[in-house]
Each structure stands twice: as structure tokens, then as C-alpha cells.
Specification:
Length: 390
């Protein structure tokens, strides 16, 4: 992996040092739910926020395969700050690949990313829930003589305390509404962070609510407005939404396995007279975990490599990959907890934190029920076509 601000020879050593620093802070960040300003500064200093920005704008021009590897490695150390970075990398990649955007705002966002700025999309709303399930947002963009005025309420705004820019999903107040993202600087007059995040896992992400009360933005900060029925995700965009997030939760499970193997070598019950790692039953259970994670590694990196090679899998397959990888991660951590027993659920044990964090994988779009519904319908529709053609 080559980072824009590092020499090639020192990249891996710098990443290992960064991961060690993150791991040392992970337990306290989880316990306090304090916003991870320190880790985010460290990411920015290494140039990580600009990795998916085009090279023409000074960024790294990274594809999705190296991004998945990076996020898995960082999340194994500290996943909350890694998720904030992941959201920035995903949104920068989506902007870079959207040929419909006017050059000025797209370039502006990219250059800010190269300079160390964080970005995320604000989409979920109290009444609507996740927009992936359909419906118009209640957040409204009203045209003014000089631009737009945005009003609404967003939930689960990951990283909001550290963002420089927010992509606010809203509908226009036109007779026939269009929907799209509106680039809102953070902070802005009329934008208020409502402290609300007190979650089971990923506690340091600062995913608070945001209220927008007539926030004024320039006219060109309206990005890619379309009729609501013309907003499906293309496969490449869907790959960026699914694979990096799946890789991050896979990384949490890798972190759990790393701790577990160290513990099993160190733990030597007096009744056994040898490390737990010497027991065949223990070895088999660790093999079960490794089997889950090895399958996920293959799924993640082969799918990501196909995307980078221009052979992007379809959205149905990408959804199934996300479900499989995150499901494997959850099962891997649960298996590790069961292997250790009651002590694994002590707050001082990192497995307890890994378990809470990895469970958050289930709430990221697309959720499992949507994935299975799409896959089932696709298979049944294909079967119907085959029968009709026979």
C-alpha cells in the first residue's frame, strides 16, 4: 500500500505503528464514547483522507481493493475511527466516479479531502428511516435567489463532530420534486448537532442527530439532482457502499482472532500443565473461526479486484457478499466468546468490545432482509423466464 504522504519503503512500518497507536486507545474510546479526534488527526497527517480522490486533484486515486485491505487492518485495531475514515473514502470515491457532477464542487470536495477534511452523507431520518427502503426525504431544499436553503432532521450522522462537509440527502420544493445530495459545510449557521449517540457498539463514532434550520448554501452545492425514480445505485457505486463496510467489520473479527490466539498461547491452567493452544478441541474451534474469515477474505478481495478491473459484480451478488462477510464476522466473534466462556464477557476483556462492535454490521445498508429479498426475487424471476422460454 502506498500513501500519498509517505515513501513507499516506509508505508507498511508507518501503518503498523498507526495500528498499534489505535489499538492502545480502543478500550478507552469505547468506554468513554469520546470522539476520536486523535486518530482522525493521525489519518489526515498520513494522507489517508485523500486516498480515493483522483490523482489529478492530488489524491491517491485508489481503487476499492486496497481500500478494503486498509480498512480491515485499521478496524482490527480501532473500528470507530476507522468507520469515520471509511465513510470519507466511500463518499470521495462516489463523487470521483459520478460523471454527472459539475467539476467545480466535485473538485472542491476532492481537494479538501486531500487536505485532510472528512466527509459523510447524511441520509437517515426519524420518520423515513433508511432511504434504501424507498420514500421521499422530509428534508427540503428550497431554491433562493442565490442558492438553496436546507431544512430537516437527520439521524445516525457518523463522525459529524469531525466533518468538514456533509452531503445532505433532500428533496427540492419544486412542483415535481427532485432528490439529491446538497453539499453543506460543517459548521454552518443553522446546522445544530443534537447529542444522541449512546450505542451498544461503535461508541466513539459520534453518530449523533443533526438539525438543519434554513441552512444557506450556494447554487452549485446541489449535487446530481434527479427524479426519485431515477436514483438506483449502479453496480460500481453499490460496490463502494457494500465492500468497504464489510471489510471493516471483517477487520473487527480479525482483531478478535488476533487477541484470542495470543490468549490461548498464554493461558495455561494448572490442571492442564500446558497452554490451551495445545488442546485439539481448541485448535478445532480456532480452525472454525479461521475458516469463516478465510472465506470472507477471498470473497472481499476477489470481488474488489473485479470492481477495479471493470468487471463489477451485480448489485444482488454484492449484497450477498456483504451479508456473508458480515455474518461470518459476527459468527467468528461469537465463537471466540463461547470458547473463552464467562470471562469473555468481562468489560476488561477485549472480546466483549469486539462482540458489541461487530453486531453493528447488521444495521448498515443493505440489511439482510433486503439482500435476501432481492436475491430470492432475482432467482425466481430467472426461473420464470427460463420456464417461459422452454
Amino acid at each position: 500500500m502506498h500513501f500519498p504522504q509517505l515513501d513507499q519503503a516506509s508505508d507498511d512500518a508507518k501503518l503498523a505503528e498507526l495500528a498499534a497507536r489505535l489499538a492502545a486507545q480502543a478500550a478507552e474510546l469505547d468506554r468513554s464514547a469520546a470522539f476520536p479526534h486523535g486518530p482522525l488527526r493521525a489519518f489526515a497527517e498520513l494522507g489517508l483522507t485523500g486516498l480515493t480522490v483522483p490523482e489529478a486533484l492530488g489524491g491517491g486515486g485508489w481503487g476499492i481493493e486496497p481500500v478494503t485491505r486498509l480498512l480491515a487492518r485499521l478496524a482490527a485495531a480501532e473500528p470507530a475511527s476507522s468507520l469515520i475514515l471509511a465513510m470519507t473514502l466511500i463518499q470521495q470515491a462516489l463523487i470521483a466516479r459520478n460523471g454527472r457532477l459539475a467539476p467545480h464542487p466535485a473538485d472542491q470536495v476532492g481537494r479538501q479531502g486531500v487536505a485532510g477534511a472528512y466527509l459523510n452523507a447524511l441520509r437517515v431520518e426519524p420518520e423515513l428511516g433508511s432511504p434504501a427502503r424507498g420514500g421521499l426525504p422530509a428534508t427540503v431544499a428550497t431554491r433562493t435567489s442565490s442558492g438553496w436553503r436546507i431544512s430537516g432532521h437527520k439521524r445516525f450522522c457518523t463522525g459529524i463532530e469531525g466533518l468538514a462537509m456533509a452531503l445532505v440527502w433532500a428533496r427540492t420544493d419544486e412542483a415535481t420534486p427532485r432528490v439529491g445530495q446538497f453539499l453543506v459545510p460543517v459548521p454552518s449557521e443553522g446546522l445544530t448537532i443534537l447529542p444522541s449517540w449512546d450505542h451498544l457498539g461503535m461508541r466513539a463514532t459520534g453518530s449523533h442527530d443533526v438539525a438543519l434550520a434554513e441552512v444557506e448554501i450556494p447554487a452549485d452545492h446541489a449535487l446530481d439532482l434527479r427524479p426519485p425514480d431515477q436514483c438506483p445505485y449502479e453496480p460500481e457505486s453499490f460496490a463502494w457502499i457494500t465492500l468497504p463496510v464489510a471489510a471493516l467489520y471483517h477487520g473487527i473479527a480479525e482483531g478478535a482472532l488476533g487477541w484470542l490466539t495470543g490468549y490461548l498461547h498464554e493461558r495455561q491452567p494448572s490442571s492442564l500443565g500446558a497452554p490451551l493452544a495445545s488442546l485439539p478441541r481448541i485448535q478445532m474451534e480456532v480452525g472454525t473461526i479461521e475458516g469463516l474469515l478465510a472465506t470472507s477474505r477471498r470473497l472481499l478481495h476477489s470481488a474488489a479486484a473485479e470492481v477495479d478491473a471493470g468487471r463489477t459484480p451485480g448489485t444482488t451478488e454484492l449484497g450477498l457478499i456483504k451479508r456473508s462477510v458480515t455474518g461470518n464476522a459476527i459468527q467468528a466473534v461469537e465463537t471466540a466468546v463461547a470458547l473463552i466462556g464467562n470471562a469473555a464477557l468481562d468489560r476488561k476483556n477485549p472480546l466483549e468490545r469486539h462482540l458489541r462492535d461487530v453486531l453493528c454490521a447488521r444495521i448498515h445498508t443493505p440489511q439482510d432482509d433486503s439482500v435476501l429479498l432481492a436475491a430470492g426475487r432475482a432467482r425466481l424471476d430467472q426461473a420464470s423466464r427460463n420456464r417461459s422460454g422452454s
